[in-house]
UniProtKB/TrEMBL annotation, chains A, E:
CDD domains xrefs: ABC_PstB_phosphate_transporter
Organism in which the protein naturally occurs: Mucilaginibacter paludis DSM 18603
Gene Ontology MF annotations: ATP binding; ATP hydrolysis activity; phosphate transmembrane transporter activity
Protein name: Phosphate ABC transporter, ATPase subunit
Entry GO CC: membrane
One annotated GO biological process: phosphate ion transmembrane transport
Domain ABC transporter: 8-248
PROSITE patterns: ABC_TRANSPORTER_1 (PS00211), ABC_TRANSPORTER_2 (PS50893)
Keywords: ATP-binding, Nucleotide-binding, Phosphate transport, Transport
From TrEMBL, chain B:
UniProt superkingdom: Bacteria
Annotated ABC transmembrane type-1 domain residues: 62-270
Localization per record: Cell membrane
NCBIfam families reported in the protein's UniProt record: 3a0107s02c (TIGR00974)
Topology relative to the membrane: Multi-pass membrane protein
GO cellular component: plasma membrane
Main location: membrane
Keywords assigned: Cell membrane, Membrane, Transmembrane, Transmembrane helix, Transport
Protein known as: Phosphate transport system permease protein PstA
One Pfam assignment: BPD_transp_1
One example GO MF annotation: phosphate transmembrane transporter activity
SUPFAM superfamilies, alphabetized: MetI-like (SSF161098)
UniProtKB/TrEMBL annotation, chain D:
UniProt-recorded Gene Ontology molecular function terms: phosphate transmembrane transporter activity
First-listed, main subcellular location of the protein, grouped into a coarse class: membrane
Function per UniProt: Part of the binding-protein-dependent transport system for phosphate; probably responsible for the translocation of the substrate across the membrane.
Lineage: Bacteria, Pseudomonadati, Bacteroidota, Sphingobacteriia, Sphingobacteriales
Protein name: Phosphate transport system permease protein
Domain ABC transmembrane type-1 span(s) in chain numbering: 72-283
Pfam family, one: BPD_transp_1
UniProtKB keywords: Cell membrane, Membrane, Phosphate transport, Transmembrane, Transmembrane helix, Transport
Domain of life of the organism encoding this protein: Bacteria
Membrane disposition: Multi-pass membrane protein
UniProt source species: Mucilaginibacter paludis DSM 18603
């Protein structure tokens, strides 16, 4: 973590579900126009941390969050940003593709409509988002097709297009490839690499190879804490903590 | 502009509808309780009506309702449960069973008055039972059957297959696996369904109109082959047929309240069973 | 078997309840179950073999007699009281009496408003009984009319009284047992009936006039009993005829005419 | 016990369950056959067309008229009125319960609504006579409140619990993923509810409505007590109406068995049966569709 | 497959679920007092095959089975053995632990009761079975505790104890460790190795390491067929079929 411009960060973040503490004193920073991979064994809190950044936990009544979450220098929770505004600037792609049960076109159009983008601009934006997400060629002939009829990989790319269309500043991705076959996975990796020119990307992954292929920086979490963070090369080849070493070599998890 | 109004519309619509629904419930209960409570007394539930039903209690109606409910349970529970066990544990999942299941669900939606007609044609007339407690009980039993089958099957379905397999794997026969493992796990769900069904049956009037209920009977308790009084019908009578409608209004309110209390008690016991069950889960 | 089923006329049902209640005091081994629903229900039950006593406020019609014969049901008929069917209106109704021709036109729907009768331009609301009622058929026979199709068909006579109490333009008919006798606080107004123009109007509450058969809408109340049930109901019929029974009948608002 | 005996028991039990199962099913099939049989007997005497389209129901008239159109229209009118009230209220309440109400409130409201479902229909009808009817009469300046409106409101109250519970299940069954997707593109709760959750739950909501309609069509005692039962052709909500169910309830007692009038009532029941069947099948279809969709 | 004594075997076994053929001409033999591992990609029919041997498919109406299944030289389907008798001799441990919702004691006692084992003998047998399954020490203080309150690994060991208590001749295990943590897994492996002295064991597993650690013989299935069977060493180090090689080296599945 050199002197890059920090786009998104959390300091001293803690989170409880009811009485159970799931995040413990997390400090993490995501540099602009870089891809950060978040790795760690199942249940360590990766998804939970990710969802803190676009205030998805606002929905669950029993989640309690403390600490500072900053986008540039705006506080995500206490400033004058509403949850809706935060989510507008920080897009998210979920572990399981979750297109709306509507047409492909409507899937992207919905966000634009909600965000008051004028009728005239929308078709262009939609086409562009689909192109950016490498799915345009596969769907351009029938944008009215229900999105649920697309294959898993196509659905996931559609969800990325949906996020991209709103031109957020950050895109959070929660294991976007876990349900996909190798071919779809490599298409999405390609896409992520391209997107990093314009966006700051945080990606949760279980796949060590994937982290090494695409991430600039890697963060290793364990039991709700960040054990180690650093350049991907360093984390995988020269981990400081024994735990990190064990994990990246596949000895547990 | 529209955007500004959204929260108003949002909360307006939702709170208004929820509020109205609650209002209905509260209004119904408040009216029944406030006007019914003064009529309640030990004498009211322990004596027969007197003076041309303008005074006295409702004992025969209470006994009639209880007897009727018991007969309903005795008829519907064993047959309904056996049928559900057959459908869920033995019958192959063929198009035939699917049709049977669909028909049973549809029968649960058939208007209760049609069961009354059927009971009249089959029990009163066909089987020569006359208008009587048995005929009415059997009619209500029929009405309850689909509900009991549905709820029992639901409870059986919730017992995971691996429980059945566990029993079979230690050498139990299929019957033993049902008796020793499936039924014990399903009992709370079955009981809840049974009690709720009975509370519904206890409040029914239409199916017994022609199958045995009477305006008045001069003895508190009847026999199986005799006519009987019930709370719902008594309430119907007091509010539409009695010659001194205005004068017996307090009695009508009292009857309504006793009926509601009875039904709610049944429901509460169902909630209780469900609660106990969820605690053990 | 000491259980008696009594079914039928609404006009008689409350009376029957009182009789059964008092009958029980002397014959506690009998159980008497009473249902109302209308004379038609009683007669149908008779035909269907579902009753021991069919109460009826009208005689059997020829069709029913045929049916009884066809089914081989022999019956005995008991006339145990006399009824004077009352026409009731709201307490504020401007007239105290009504003549039969006007009544006819009101009930058959010819007069849609009260104008021709009272001068008030208010819609006529008829509170009637359903078609199986003996009273319903008695009136329609007596006046030789078909009731207006707008007539409400109430489930029982009591509901008619209830309706009339509130309805200033309503008119309804009920058996004598449904109106208070000798009371000043009648909740509804009981109309006197003028059978012909020029003749003095008669009230259904006028015992003397009824004894002299002067009220236009007076009628006997019947009980039809299948021969097969006669032995069983014998005691009950005797009770009706006893002094105690007769007292209950008159106290219930009906009349006894020696025949 | 010896294995052989245990296996005999097993066989016997299987036989017993099969026999009772099939018997119950046969009896239930009997209801349908009986309706069919008696309806058939009726149609030997009265033409089905006259029955359905006749505008006069007067079985004791001379000649007798068996036109059920006024009854059909009455039933439809009351049901329609009930649904106009119950559908918006039901969906609104269900939406509030599923997406807005806190846990505590919900755990209180849910059983309360189930309580409402268990209030017997005579009790509701009774309140229709003594409270709502007079109230309507007073407010509308009518002489009498026993009319279609009274019945519609009461039936709305009675079908609300069904509509609310099934709709709420449907709304809660919408995968969280959809809601999250909507939030993640910046929608707020209301937009998500109206534009994502409710459309996604539409089949379930339709099923709820259908079940509510079925309940309203089939309800007997409430309408019998509260709608005035005039058999004339209904002309509006302030008119007394006589529904199909009420007609059966009123006239069944008075008919001698095996007469035309008797069969006529079975014919009404058959029409009623078909109507509820249709409504239930449609409802059922959407419930299933909805389940499938939930699974995917 | 040398000249060991064959305890359990299937020849020319085929199975259809409705119209779908799930097992195609399967021939397989399990030698006595040996552990055989059944491996193959998800959905290839491992569980289905296993369940043929203790007639678990009798319950599903749409399953149709042909072929010969022999225990020693008795036919499992056509001889004079009833399904109940077959299951008595061939025990099974399922993928998901499925203790009865009764006490620990009752869980084992049930099978004994059903199978006419005298009241006096039962406590001894139960204690012994629990000891054999390495769970005695953890539960001996409260045998009346509901079995559902045990941890996943304990439940699985209890299920093994339940099977063992009846002294079957064969024990079938369907991925008994798939839901368990490494510590529980190693305990159960230890147990399996010990059990092979007395029983013939067939175990389905997804875990290649596990197969290598415990199995004497390994059978590789693919799309309802047996591709290759042989000593574990041979299957993993010198597979004859290319498919086998690809699979054991983790190239698919
Ligand atoms: N809504 C919730 N209520 C209570 N506990 C929760 C909730 N969501 C998650 N948890 C718990 O929080 C911990 C962290 O969960 P999280 O989903 O963040 O893990 P993860 O690192 O993403 O794991 P995985 O790789 O399996 O997705 C887990 O122990 C989980 O059980
Ligand atoms: N009851 C059933 N009805 C229809 N098809 C079934 C049934 N049970 C299993 N199958 C199908 O049979 C095939 C084999 O299933 P089986 O459970 O034997 O696979 P498996 O090798 O055990 O896989 P896994 O490793 O995932 O447990 C699968 O395609 C499955 O979908
Ligand atoms: Mg996660
Ligand atoms: Mg398997
Ligand atoms: O009830 P009725 O006397 O009119 O038949």
């Amino acid at each position: 973590m050199n002197n890059e411009h920090i786009k998104l960060s959390a300091t001293d973040a803690r989170l409880w579900f009811g009485k159970k503490q799931v995040l413990k004193n997390v400090n993490v920073a995501f540099p602009e126009n870089k891809i950060t991979a978040l790795i760690g064994p199942s249940g360590c809190g990766k998804s939970t941390l990710l969802r803190c950044f676009n205030r998805m936990h606002d929905l669950s009544a029993d989640a309690r969050i403390t600490g500072n979450f900053l986008l540039e220098d705006q506080d995500l929770y206490r400033g004058n940003l509403s949850a809706t505004a935060v989510r507008r600037r920080i897009g998210m792609v979920f572990q399981q593709a979750n297109p709306f049960p509507k047409s492909i076109y409507e899937n992207i159009n919905y966000g634009l409509k909600i965000n008051d983008i004028s009728k005239e601009e929308r078709p262009g934006i939609i086409e562009n988002a689909l192109k950016e997400s490498y799915i345009w060629d596969e769907v351009k002939d029938d944008l009215q097709k229900p999105a649920t009829r697309l294959s898993g990989g196509q659905q996931q790319r559609l969800c990325i297009a949906r996020a991209v269309a709103l031109r957020p500043e950050v895109i959070l991705m929660d294991e976007p490839c876990s349900a996909l076959d190798p071919i779809s996975t490599s298409k999405i990796e390609e896409l992520i690499l391209k997107l990093k020119q314009d966006y700051t990307i945080v990606i949760v992954t279980h796949n060590m190879q994937q982290a090494q292929r695409i991430a600039d920086q890697t963060v290793f979490m364990y039991l709700g804490e960040i054990i180690e963070a650093g350049s991907t090369r360093q984390i995988f080849n020269d981990p400081q903590a024994e735990l990190t070493g064990n994990y990246v070599q596949g000895h547990f998890g | 502009m529209i955007k500004k109004l959204t929260p108003v519309i949002e909360w307006g619509t939702l709170l208004l509808s929820t509020g109205l629904v609650c209002f209905f419930l509260v209004a119904i209960l408040w009216d029944l309780i406030s006007k019914g409570a003064p009529s309640l007394s030990w004498a009211f539930i322990s004596t027969s009506p007197t003076d041309g039903m303008t005074r006295g209690g409702i004992l025969p109606a209470i006994i009639g309702t209880l007897l009727l409910t018991i007969i309903t349970a005795l008829v519907a529970a064993p047959f309904g449960i056996c049928c559900a066990i057959y459908l869920n544990e033995y019958a192959a999942d063929s198009w035939l069973t699917r049709i049977i299941r669909a028909s049973i669900r549809n029968l649960a939606g058939v208007p209760s008055i049609i069961y009354g007609l059927f009971g009249l044609a089959l029990f009163v007339q066909g089987l020569q039972m006359g208008t009587s407690l048995v005929a009415a009980g059997l009619t209500l039993g029929l009405l309850s059957l689909p509900y009991i089958i549905i709820t029992t099957e639901e409870a059986l379905r919730r017992v995971p297959n691996r429980m059945r397999e566990a029993a079979l794997a230690v050498g139990a026969t299929q019957f033993e696996s049902i008796r020793d493992v499936v039924l014990p796990s399903a009992v709370p769900g079955m009981l809840t369904g049974l009690v709720l069904t009975l509370s519904r049956a206890a409040g029914e009037t239409a199916p017994i109109l022609f199958t045995g209920v009477a305006f008045y009977i001069n003895k508190p308790a009847g026999y199986l082959n005799q006519e009987f009084m019930t709370l719902p019908y008594h309430l119907y009578m007091l509010s539409t047929q009695h010659q001194a409608i205005e004068q017996v209004r307090p009695l009508a309110y009292g009857t309504a309240l006793v009926l509601i209390i009875l039904v709610f008690l049944l429901n509460l016991s169902a909630f209780y069973i469900r609660y106990q069950y969820s605690k053990h889960e | 078997d000491k259980s008696i089923k009594v079914k039928g006329s609404d006009t008689e049902v409350n009376l029957a309840v009182s009789l059964a209640e008092n009958f029980y005091k002397v014959h506690s081994d009998f159980s008497v179950a009473i249902s109302g629903g209308g004379s038609g229900l009683g007669i149908a039950s008779l035909l269907n073999g579902q009753t021991d006593i069919a109460n009826s406020s009208r005689p059997l019609n020829s069709e029913e007699i045929e049916l009884l014969k066809a089914k081989g049901i022999a019956i005995r008929t008991v006339i145990f009281a006399e009824d004077a069917t009352a026409f009731i209106v709201h307490r504020d109704f401007p007239l105290d009496s009504i003549d039969v021709p006007s009544l006819t036109r009101i009930l058959n729907g010819q007069y849609k408003t009260w104008k021709p009768v009272t001068g008030q331009d208010m819609a006529v609301n008829i509170y009637g009984r359903q078609s199986n009622s003996g009273t319903h058929s008695f009136i329609s026979k007596k006046l030789n009319i078909q009731f207006s199709r707008d007539a409400k068909e109430m489930n029982g006579s009591a509901q008619i009284v209830e309706g009339i109490k509130r309805d200033k333009s309503g008119i309804g008919y009920v058996g004598a047992g449904y109106i208070l006798h000798g009371g000043v606080n009648q909740p509804v107004k009981v109309l006197k009936i003028t059978s012909k123009k020029g003749i003095k109007s008669v009230s259904p509450l006028d015992t003397k006039a009824i004894a002299a058969h002067l009220y236009y809408f007076q009628r006997p109340l019947y009980q039809f009993i299948p021969i097969t049930s006669w032995n069983k109901v014998d005691a009950f019929i005797d009770f009706e005829k006893s002094a105690a029974g007769q007292k209950i009948i008159t106290e219930s608002g009906y009349y006894i005419i020696p025949r | 016990m010896k294995l052989a005996i245990r296996e005999k028991t097993d066989q016997a039990a299987k036989l017993l369950f099969r026999m009772t199962g099939l018997m119950v099913i046969a009896i239930l099939a009997g209801i349908f056959l009986m309706l069919l049989w008696n309806t058939g007997a009726f149609f030997l005497k009265v033409k089905p067309f006259d029955f359905i389209t006749g505008t006069q129901w007067n079985p004791s008239g001379n000649p007798a008229n068996y036109g059920m159109l006024p009854l059909l229209v009455s039933t439809s009118l009351v049901t329609f009125g009930a649904m106009c009230i119950a559908i918006p209220l039901g969906i609104g309440t269900a939406a509030y319960l599923s997406d807005y109400a806190g846990k505590k409130l919900k755990s209180f409201l849910k059983p309360a609504i189930e309580m409402l479902a268990s209030v017997p229909s005579v009790a509701i009808g009774f309140l229709g006579i003594v409270v709502l009817g007079p109230g309507i009469a007073r407010m509308a300046g009518q002489s009498n409140g026993l009319n279609a409106l009274n019945g519609a409101i009461l039936l709305a109250v009675m079908s609300l619990p069904t509509i609310i519970t099934v709709t709420q299940d449907a709304l809660e069954g919408v995968p969280n993923a959809y809601k999250e997707a909507s939030y993640s593109v910046g929608a707020n709760r209301w937009q998500t509810l109206i534009q994502v959750t409710i459309p996604a739950a539409a089949p379930g909501i339709l099923a709820a409505v259908m079940l509510g309609v079925g309940r309203a069509i089939g309800e007997t005692m409430t309408v019998l007590m509260a709608t005035g039962n005039a058999s004339a052709f209904p002309t509006g909500f302030f008119h007394s109406v006589r529904t199909m169910t009420a007609t059966i309830a009123i006239e069944m007692g008075e008919v001698p068995y095996q007469t035309t009038h008797y069969y006529a009532l079975f014919a009404i029941a058959a029409v009623l049966f078909l109507m509820t069947l249709l409504v239930n099948i449609v409802g059922e279809h959407y419930v299933n569709k909805y389940r499938k969709y939930q699974a995917s």
